[in-house]
Amino acid sequence: MILNRKYYYLWLLLVPAWLFFYLSLQSLTDLIIFGLIKLPKDSHLTNSISFFLFEVPKVLLLLILIVFVVGIIRSYFSPERTRKMLGDKKLFMGNVLGSMLGIVTPFCSCSAIPLFLGFVEAGVPLGVTFSFLIAAPMINEVAVVLLFGLFGWKTALIYMSSGLFIAMFSGFVIGKLKLERFVEDWVYQVKAGNSVIMEEDKITFAKRISYGVDEVKEIVGKVWIYVVLGIAVGAGIHGYVPENFMVGLMGKGVWWSVPAAVLIGIPMYSNSAGIIPIVQALLEKGAALGTVLAFMMSVIGLSLPETIILKKVLKLPLIFTFVGVVGVGIIIVGYLFNFIF
Fold it and tell me: How far is residue 285 from each of residues 243, 244, 257, measured CA to CA in Å?
């Protein structure tokens, strides 16, 4: 199907406007700070406000673009198709594929129970299921675009590779431990329905574009407030928190900083939109990369709401194993990156 002409006109206007505004952010920020507000240079207040005014539109612009593109990609992956792709995969290869699919499929921690039930019905191994459930919330497009926008592609790639390692490692270990007996009995009593696989290939590209627009409205509409609040907190840290304080608390020389960061992060609840701007401010103040990554991963990948939700389908020994194995993987990544960088 040929796209309606209005789509062409819309893109002809929006794409150059997006590019112009994105490339002009620093100039516009300087104009507001020094031309309109006339703040003094190099003051704590100026540094904080400049950080806030530059990062908020930058992150939101990147978020809109990436969520739109990923939304189109997601239109090719329904829950039924995902389960079918993972159903006949063995351990390790299933962990790899499950982790990779977790990046591009539209599921978060709140989808844990229906996804878990669907995977069990489809015969997906327990370890492969956990690889998917770990990767889906941890390595999402919001986290990647924020990291790319704030730190560059190298840091975003480091985070993605680390998250994939943790998802594959944790799922493989859980699969090897044979912990199926700690899944609630009622889960296995659920009858597998004859679900029909959606014929995604027959969806027109115009509908996929519409799906991408809907994803922008849905996701950006929900997380923009967290972006603003997170950047506001980061701006305060950027402008006012002394560097020596953060180096002493989360620097490379503090051996206990990585496990402490994970223990602090696990009970916290936030999403990537709220936590990553804070991470940026911590790094700029001298906190070690591995320690900050460990903190961020524990907040996003081991959130307290997710573990509470999973309690409906898992018994406590498997919950503790899940948290422990993922936590150990995050600690390993934290120490590794503190050693390398």
Answer: 5, 8, 15
pLDDT digits (tens, 9 = 90+) for 196-211: 444 445 677 677 777 7
Does 314 or 274 have the greater pLDDT score? 314
pTM of the model: 0.64
Q: Tell me how many domains the chain contains.
A: 1
At what angle are helices 93-104 and 153-176 packed, to 10 degrees?
Answer: 140
Is 15 among the domain residues? yes
Q: Tell me, yes or no, whether 275 lies in a domain.
A: yes
Is residue 222 included in any domain, yes or no? yes
222: containing domain: 1-193+204-341
Of 160, 185, 146, nearest in space to 278 by CA = 146
Q: Are 318 and 183 in contact (CB under 8 A)?
A: yes
Within-domain flag for 198: no
Q: Considering only 124-128, 183-187, 317-321, which range has the smallest mean pLDDT?
A: 183-187
Residue 25 pLDDT class (50, 70, 90 cuts):
confident
Q: Sign (positive/negative) of CA torsion 226, 228, 231, 232?
A: negative
Q: How far apart are the first and last CA of the chain?
A: 50
CA pair distance 313, 310, nearest whole angstrom: 6
Calculate what percentage of the chain has a pLDDT beyond 90.
1
- Taking every pair of Cα atoms in the chain, the longest distance, rounded to a whole number of angstroms, is 68
Q: Give the pLDDT score at 37.
A: 84
